[in-house]
Amino acid sequence: MPATRKKRYTSGRRHSYDASIFGRFDAASSTDRVVHFPALILPCSLSLSDSLTFMPRIISANLNGIRSAHKKGFFNWLATVDADFICVQELKAVEADMTEEFLRPHGYHGHFHYAEKKGYSGTGVYSRLAPDNKRIGFGCQEFDAEGRYTRCDFGNLTVISVYCPSGSSSPERQLAKFRFMEVFLPHLQELKAEGREVVICGDWNIAHKEIDLKNWKSNQKNSGFLPEERAWMTRLFDELGLVDVHRVVAPEAADYTWWSNRGQSWAKNVGWRIDYHVATPGIAAKAHSVSVYKDERFSDHAPLIIDYHL
């Protein structure tokens, strides 16, 4: 489990808010304020000298099937981790498969992008509060049909769950992955140009650098560590100015987030770091702790947890 966070100002629950990110504060009196959150007004008993901060915990988790992860205890764990936003990938479910527990676990709001194909792909975002706006898909018919993109806006903060294609199953899927990379890059440019603070969480299916997988030498010709894929990730960071948040907090850590089910990969920690928080520089600079949760195993991926101090 990540270390316990500092106490946050609350309004009956465990939330606290920063006006520059989420809205504004009005001084109702010397002792009372009203916090204006999109579509929500929360009364807080705080003095005018109190400094309000928002310390969100954002989790990215590839579930490899929401029903499977549920059976392995994912939603029980979710109740214990004090997360503000949880981005999930690989639902492997359509809307008819989603129970109340999947849609609104522990009072979270859930928004989802389902694949047209049953038992395949899918993404979602859980949040404590309802978003101002949401976007399902990023405007490419081929990949929107696969349920790969869920966006939720909260004031000036955008949280996105993305599931980039894997190319490991066949040459045809690798070509599809390259097509995705080609159309997704311009979308990321447009997203950054909006001027919002953005955190894009998900399974990017690419290990960027040698430190990001155990056996990098033997994988240089394999999907997920191809030169073209790694160069594309470099463009995100060097040309677009987005940030690999994990590496801001832990630049030298050999942290992996995915392990093959073959052999003893999990037991021997022969893994890959392919799950990321990719963010705009402003919020990336506010990240202060990162962890990969491995005490329990909900899928072939482990949840990536990053705390921000806004």
Describe this structure in words.
The chain is of the alpha+beta class and 310 residues long. It has one domain (57-308): Deoxyribonuclease I, Chain A (4-Layer Sandwich). 22% of the residues lie in helices and 27% in strands. The protein has 9 helices and 17 strands. Strands 6-7-5-4-17-16 form a 6-stranded mixed beta sheet. A 6-stranded mixed beta sheet has the order 8-9-10-11-15-12. The chain has a 3-stranded antiparallel beta sheet with strand order 1-2-3. Residues 1-52 have low confidence and may be disordered.
Layout of secondary structure:
Layout: H1 19-22, E1 24-27, E2 32-37, E3 40-45, E4 57-62, H2 66-71, H3 74-78, E5 85-89, H4 100-103, E6 109-113, E7 123-127, E8 133-136, H5 141-144, E9 149-154, E10 157-163, H6 171-193, E11 197-203, H7 227-238, E12 243-244, H8 245-249, E13 258-259, E14 271-272, E15 275-279, H9 281-284, E16 287-292, E17 304-308
Parallel strand pairs: 4-5, 10-11
Antiparallel strand pairs: 1-2, 2-3, 4-17, 5-7, 6-7, 8-9, 9-10, 11-15, 12-15, 13-14, 16-17
Provide the descriptors you would attach to this structure in a database record.
disordered N terminus; 22% helix; 27% strand; six-stranded mixed sheet; Deoxyribonuclease I, Chain A; 9 helices; alpha+beta
| Cα gyration radius (Å) | 19 Å
Under CATH, the topology can be stated as Deoxyribonuclease I, Chain A
Mean pLDDT rating = 87
The helix content is: 10-25%
What's the CATH superfamily, by name? Answer: Endonuclease/exonuclease/phosphatase
Number of strands: 17
Look at the helices and sheets and give the structural class. Answer: alpha+beta
State the helix count: 9
Instruction: Measure the end-to-end span.
Output: 22 Å
Low-confidence residue ranges: 1-52
In CATH, the architecture is 4-Layer Sandwich
Report the order of strands and helices: HEEEEHHEHEEEHEEHEHEHEEEHEE
DSSP strand (E) fraction?
A: 25-35%
Please outline the major beta sheet: 6 strands, mixed
- The shape, in one word, is globular
Q: Please list the strands of the largest sheet in the order they lie side by side.
A: 6-7-5-4-17-16
The figure for the number of domains is 1
